[in-house]
Amino acid sequence: MQTLSKRNVLLIGITLFSMFFGAGNLIFPPFLGYGAGAVSVPAFIGFVLTAVVFPVLGVTAVAKSGGLDRLCEKVHPQFSVVFSIAVYLCIGPMLAIPRTAGTSYAMFSFLTDRLGEGSVFGIPVQTAAAISFSVVFFIAAGIFARHPERLKDILGKRMTPVLLVLILLMFGACVLHGELPASETLPKYSANPFGTGFVDGYQTMDTMAALVFGIVIAINIRALGVEDNDRIALETIKGGVIAGIFLAAIYGMLTFVGMKSGSLISGAENGTEILTAACLRFFGSTGAVILALIFFIACFNVCIGLISSCAEFFSMKFTFLSFHAWIWVLTAWSFIISIFGLNTILAISVPILSVIYPVAIIIIILNLLPGAFFRQKQVQRAAVILALAYGVYSVL
Q1: How far apart are CA 174 and CA 179, in angstroms?
Q2: Rounded to an integer, what distance in angstroms lies between the CA atom of residue 237 and that of residue 8?
Q3: 143 contacts: CB under 8 Å, gap ≥ 6
Q4: What is the pTM of this model?
Q5: pLDDT tens digit string along 199-244?
Q6: pLDDT tens-digit series, residues 10-28
Q7: pLDDT tens, 265-307?
Q8: Closest by alpha carbon to 237, among 5, 1, 16, 7?
C-alpha cells in the first residue's frame, strides 16, 4: 500500500487550498474585520467555523464515504441526486465560477478606468472591456481545467506560492502601520459578533466546495502513484487539514487588514474597496498592481479547480457528453452568468446559500459523528428537513 511523502502531502494540501481560496475568500474576511472592529475576534471565530472547520470536515466526510452522492444517499437516493446537482450548480456555473471573473476584472479598474466612457460598435467601452476580459479569462481557465491530474503542478507548485507571498507582503505592510486604529463596529456585529461572523462564512462557499473537490484531489493523488481507495481517502483528509491551516492563517491576516482600514475608507460596501484603500495607502500606486495580481491568481486558481471538478461530476452523471465537452459547456455557461456583474451575482448568492448551507453542514456532521444512530435514515431525513426549514426561515 503506497503512501505520499510529506512533501507530496503538503503539495496536495496547498493545491486544495488554492482551489478553495478565491473571490469570496478575499472579499469577506477584510469586510468582516472592517465591520466588526473591536469585536473582530469573536466574529472571526464564528467565520472560521463555517469557512474553515466545516470545509475540512466536509473534505473528511466525502473522502470517507467515497463521494458526495454516497454521502447523501442515506437520506434518500433521489435527494442525493437533486442535492448533489444543486451543490455543483451553486459552487460551479451559477454562482462561484462566474464570481471569479467578475471579481478579477473589478481589481483592474486602475487600467480600465483609463478607457473612458466611449463606446465600441454601440456598446459602452467599459462593458466591452469587461466582456473581453471574461472571454479570455474563461478560455484560459477551460484550457487548464482539461488536465485535472496536473492541477497539483499548475496550482500547488507555481501559482499559489506567488499568491501567498503577495498576501504576506500586504499583511506585513499593515502590521508596520501600527498607528492605524481599529474600525468602528457596525450594529449587526456589536449585537451578535459570533453569529454574524458565522453567517458571513457561508459566502465563501467553501463547505460546499469541500463536497465537490474530492474528485479532482483523488485524481491528483492517483497521479502521484497511490491506487488504494482507503489510502487515497486518508491522504485527502491530510490535505484537507493542511488546506484548513493555510485558510485560517490567511483569513486572520485579511481580517486584521480590514479591522485596521476604518480610517482609510468610509462607507465601504465590499472587501475589494477595503483592500484597495489599504494597498494604496501601504504601497502607493504600486498597491493597485499588487492587489490585482492577488485577486487574479486566487480567482483563476479557483475557476480552474471548479470547472474541472464540475465537469468530472456531470460527465459521470450525464454521459451523453464527455468530460472535455462538459468543460466547455460549463465554461460558456459561467461566462454568460458573469456578464450580469459581481453585485448581481452576490445579491443572488446570499439567499440561495442561506438555504443550502445548513443542509450541507448537517449532512457532514451526521456522517462524522460516532455511532450508528446518526446514520439511520429516519434520523438523517429528520435532520435534513429541519436544516432546510431553518435555511428557508433565515431567508424569509
Answers
A1: 10
A2: 13
A3: none
A4: 0.84
A5: 888 778 788 888 888 778 888 888 888 888 888 888 888 999 999 9
A6: 989 998 898 888 867 888 9
A7: 888 888 888 998 999 899 988 988 998 899 899 889 889 988 9
A8: 16
Q: Quick one: three-class SS letters along the chain? A: CCCCCHHHHHHHHHHHHHHHCCHHHHHHHHHHHHHHHHHHHHHHHHHHHHHHHHHHHHHHHHHHHCCHHHHHCCCCHHHHHHHHHHHHHHHHHHCHHHHHHHHHHHCCHHHHHHHCCCEECCEEHHHHHHHHHHHHHHHHHHHHHCCHHHHHHHHHHHHHHHHHHHHHHHHHHHHHCCCCCCCCCCHHHHHCHHHHHHHHHHHHCHHHHHHHCHHHHHHHHHHCCCCCHHHHHHHHHHHHHHHHHHHHHHHHHHHHHHHCCCCCCCCCCCHHHHHHHHHHHHHCCHHHHHHHHHHHHHHHHHHHHHHHHHHHHHHHHCCCCCHHHHHHHHHHHHHHHHCCCHHHHHHHHHHHHHHHHHHHHHHHHHHHCCCHHHHCHHHHHHHHHHHHHHHHHHHC
Cα 16 from Cα 13, distance rounded (Å): 5
Hey, what's the cell of 243? 488546506
